[in-house]
Fold this sequence. Notes:
CATH class of the largest domain: Alpha Beta
Order of helices and strands: EEHEEHHEHEHEHEHHEHEHHEHHEHEEEH
Number of domains: 2
Strand content: 15-25%
CATH topology of the largest domain: TIM Barrel
Bound molecules: zinc ion
Helix content: 40-55%
Number of helices: 15
Structural class: alpha/beta
Number of strands: 15
Strand order of the largest sheet: 3-12-13-14-15
Radius of gyration: 21 Å
Amino acid sequence: MDAQRRVIEDGAIVLEGSKILAVGLRSELERQFKGARKVLRANSILLPGLINTHAHIPMSLLRGIADDKRLQDWLENYIFPAEGRNVTREFCYWGTLLGCLEMMLSGTTTYTDMYYFEEEIARATVQAGMRGVLGQTVIGFPVADAKTPVEALARTEAFFKQYSAEPLITPAVAPHALYTNSKETLQACRKLANQYKRPLVIHVSETKRENDDMIAKYGKSPVQTLDDWGIFDGPTIAAHVIWVDDQDIATLARKRVGIAHCPSSNMKLASGIAPVLKQLAAGLHVGVGTDGPAGSNNDFHLIEEMDLAAKLAKVHAMNPEVLPAKTALEMATVHGAAVLGMSEQIGSLEAGKLADCVFLRSSSPNLIPSFDPYSSIVYAAKAADVTDVYIHGEQVVAAGKSLKLDTQLILKKVQDYQRQVVLSLSKK
Ligand SMILES: [Zn+2]
């Protein structure tokens, strides 16, 4: 996965510090870099770290709390009450450690988040050694970390300042959606993002109901309304983007909005099928995302999302030729990087880019024989095939185990939180 999409057999990459120095044939690079320390991984596929363009990471602690519900029922009757009684600073910190553990062990090196207490999420993400574009939520009703949108915006600005120089973290502002925020709040979010040159993360046109309600309220689709208000006038990451027409897609392309496609979530919540092929054809960058694990997925496995992105597009088009494996891998790597505005830094294995890379064990029974590596990675590989992960030049996973996090301690904390959540919901 480089600019030429080369597949190099018996290849190697050379890392120096946080960056990739060279990519090529092992024999040539061994000659060129004689004194370098060698890490040999026979029977492996080396690929760029996967990029999850949409998640709510601390919701790992609410994994599967309410399945098989309609989005509004799920949000209003399960998620918002469970969050209201449980989400604290510590909850976000431990939920992030669990989420980072799961993401890293399954090959994700960068993720985008939208949640509360984002500074705690950033702290845990740095501790895990992961890369994050972390969006502090701004929403039009009282939540765990802010009573009002004005307070949430002040928290966001403090978060921008606190994480201005951490190489692994890109702080962002995350107005939840058009239907949960006023025009004034959304415009204040855009202004703050532009002032600090940070991205804006938002859910857009996830359900038909959202579209119908917004058209009734504003006379235009969510995309057109947001565009009229200037919300896309700066780097934007839009999640879902399902209920969009040709005019909306043209607007998104003109504004270079990055799209986070979340096939598991869209299928599980029966939100609809995003017109990914049209979006790609319009020149939009479309990445893949897991969304949160509380009922809309319920895991953070990006290999599975690639597989589902390809298959959902095929069944939607009733055509197996569309969205081939190579495109699916591009969505989880180079497109994902472009969605986050990080094309120059991550998403491919090329000299000069940051060293975020993943080894898959290609001798796993489900990966042999292999006639085409793209096919193997997208349609046959599983999270458990990931053996080693490097982020920012540092090895964070070896032989399928985290080198940075205390797995036993995290598991114990998760059990404590599960008991606490059950207890909180039993109280009237
Ligand atoms: Zn979401």
